[in-house]
Amino acid sequence: MDSRSTPLLELQNVSRIFSRKKGFLGDRQEFYAVNGVSLALKPGETLGLVGESGSGKSTVARMAVRLLSPSAGRVLLDGRSMFTADKAFRQSLPRRVQMVFQDPYSSLNPRLRVGYSIGEALACAGVPARERKERVAALLAQVGLEKDYAARFPHEFSGGQRQRMALARALAPEPELVVCDEPVSSLDASVQAQVLNLLKDNQERLGLSYLFISHDLAVISHMSDRVAVMYAGRILETGSAADIFMNPLHPYTRELLEASRGRGNVGSGEPGKAVASGGSGCPYLRRCGQAGLDCAGEAPELREIRPGHFARCSLA
Ligand code: ADP
Ligand code: MG
């Protein structure tokens, strides 16, 4: 791939603020669910976004598909802002960018026959009615399902089959980018591998780009060309999958790796007090086993430690 090509998806310094109640009757307090995140995804590439629950991954996903607007920063598709570019461009986005959720019912209406749900996505993409039946059958085949399934309802299938159907629906408008938010997290391990391989096969066949989100490092490692590690709304480390797995630089990445190898525990990546106030100090300070005196000072920037391998840690 040409390293100079325009990224398909780019997040430039994107933040998203939410508010939550402080205590039972308390005032609402604002906090950064996503804080100054920059990411770039090249055409045909898979960028894995990993981090524990509450770290802000789904908020990134929702901004990347224009379901949620950023509080600051820019989200670009092919170099153009998803939020401020002209109307024709913005109207083309639902076709070009699709999402697969953890729960397939987020995209499959339980009251509609599977073929109808997929046909609806084809209709939105402008496929004429007379071609839809054939296209539905082809899409079902593409995700390893029989065409007869079109006449049945989602609840008649297993979780893995439903997720295949959700993928068929996402692929219907022939998107360039698919944002997958924990697509296999609700599936049994044996079924997970099948669905991951299906995602890979379709990527190769269709030249898709994936922003692939998981809390599970094993899954991320199976899928990703590059990886970004997120914690409390920030990217703590990013680089090629080989960099991240062979040569992790950030103590948090190492903690995640240890935990995924069954040695250690991972707590919660909810934005803490320091982050909520936009405050100083390393966001990982409270959890870090290696922190020194300097770490309580200025929050570290994301620095390029080796070519293409960045970490937000004063000790790296
Ligand atoms: P992840 O997907 O990594 O588990 P999320 O992006 O879902 O993380 O959430 C990040 C933080 O933002 C969490 O603290 C979550 O509770 C909070 N959050 C997410 N969506 C909203 C919302 N609509 N309103 C208020 N807080 C939210
Ligand atoms: Mg999530």
What does this protein structure show overall?
The structure is a single chain. This protein is α/β, with parallel strands linked by helices. It has one domain: Rossmann fold. 32% of the residues lie in helices and 24% in strands. The chain is built from 10 helices and 12 strands. The radius of gyration is 20 Å and the shape is globular. The relative contact order is 0.15. The site of magnesium ion (MG) has 4 residues, from helix 1.
CATH topology (fold) name? Rossmann fold
Low-confidence sequence ranges = 273-278
CATH class: Alpha Beta
CATH architecture: 3-Layer(aba) Sandwich
For the biggest β-sheet, the strand order reads 6-7-8-3-9-10-12-11
- SSE string: EEEHEEHEHHHEHEHEEHHHEE
User: What do we call the CATH homologous superfamily?
Assistant: P-loop containing nucleotide triphosphate hydrolases
Q: Please, how many helices?
A: 10
End-to-end Cα distance, whole Å, is 29 Å
Integer count of domains: 1
Mean pLDDT: 92
> Strand share of the residues?
15-25%
Number of strands: 12
Provide a quick synopsis of the model:
This protein is α/β, with parallel strands linked by helices.
